[in-house]
Amino acid sequence: MRHSTDESVVKEKMRATFEYRQKLVHEQDATSSVLDVFHCFLDIPGLIDQDFSMMLGDEVSGRFLAKWPSYFKHKVIKESQSLPSDLHVEELRAASDPEAENECGWDSDVSALLLLLHLLPHTSRCCKKSAKISSAQAANHLVRFVKEGQSLTTFLEKMDAGHPFFLCISEQKKSVRRFFIVVDQKAIPCNAPTTMAAFDGLFKAHYVFSLSYDEALSSFCSFIQTAVYNIDVKELRARLLQEH
């Protein structure tokens, strides 16, 4: 599997090794070893989706992309009108309109996600000794942007080995075409056609690699988990303990 370039063969072998991989990720500090053992995560897009579907089923796996654009996105944008006005919020509101001219900001989908981050109370400290952070600063814990042509390797070397985030690479934020999920300073490629599909992959990575939510994003991620994916943690924990 390490040397195969046939995606169908790799995906079949990954399905066969799913239970072994789950045992690895539930060991303490095992994420790096999982990505080292199963290096194909860094080469073959779609493996996070496959593992997530094996954990929770195709119906759960498809919930975010089915429910967010058709229901939640518009509700969030409407509710954001109640937010106190500041430059960052105003920029996000403007960019959340897909018809609006937007040269510098994110596309309407990412803008709506970041508005949700502003609407939900977030942990004010990303670690016990850190200074209080704003919602705008918390957004950097969720998504980062690198301009096309800059070194991805250099960018990753500067990152702390912290919680995962999704990385967008393009000429402009509003029209991203390359996506990665960054886990432990490693960039996992996404075959996502949209920023929403890339975020879907980021959320699923927490489950596939048994990673906790970033403290600064705890309320945000918990809302996505319970309201959009309808994942019951107690039910999931019981199922995993029973199976393993």
Write up what this structure looks like:
This protein has 244 residues and is an alpha+beta fold. It has one domain (7-243). 51% of the residues lie in helices and 9% in strands. The protein is built from 13 helices and four strands. The longest helix is centred in the first third of the chain and has 17 residues, at 63-79. It starts with 6 loop residues before the first helix and ends with a helix.
Features:
51% helix, globular, alpha+beta, four-stranded mixed β-sheet, 244 residues, single chain, 4 strands
Radius of gyration: 18 Å
Structural class: alpha+beta
Strand order of the largest sheet: 1-2-3-4
Helix content: 40-55%
- Please report the number of helical segments: 13
Question: How many structural domains can be distinguished in the coordinates?
Answer: 1
* Number of distinct beta strands: 4
Low-confidence stretches at least 5 residues in length (pLDDT < 50)? 124-130
Overall mean confidence score, pLDDT: 86
Distance between the termini: 24 Å
H/E series, N to C? Answer: HHHHHHHHHEHEEEHHH
What proportion of the residues form beta strands (DSSP E)?
Answer: 5-15%
Main beta-sheet strand count, sense and barrel state = 4 strands, mixed
The gross shape turns out to be: globular
Brief synopsis:
The protein is an alpha+beta fold and 244 residues long. Helices cover 51% and strands 9% of the residues.
